[in-house]
Amino acid sequence: MLDPLNDNLFHERDDVEETKRSAANLEEILDETYDELKAYLLCRIEGGQNQLQMVTDKRNAILQANRVAKTTLEVFDNILYKEPLDQRTYSS
Fold first, then answer.
1. Coil, helix or strand for 82?
2. pTM for this prediction
3. Rounded CA gap, 50 and 58, in Å?
4. CA atoms of 52 and 63, how far apart (whole Å)
């Protein structure tokens, strides 16, 4: 009667040791998974920041081009609608 109980106790000890090893292994796997996920997300964040910078640069370039175009149009507008010069003014 004690032999089956001793066998069960022996197997339970083995099961406890296996559970401890599994828990340690699981913790290691979780740490690796966390590190990989963290690295992946940091790359995604960096990519998003780069895209945002590119969009900002493009917006600034468009604004600058619009300012140059506006100035150019104003110059041509001034030329086109300026009072004609009177040649008598420059004749001596």
1. coil
2. 0.55
3. 12
4. 16
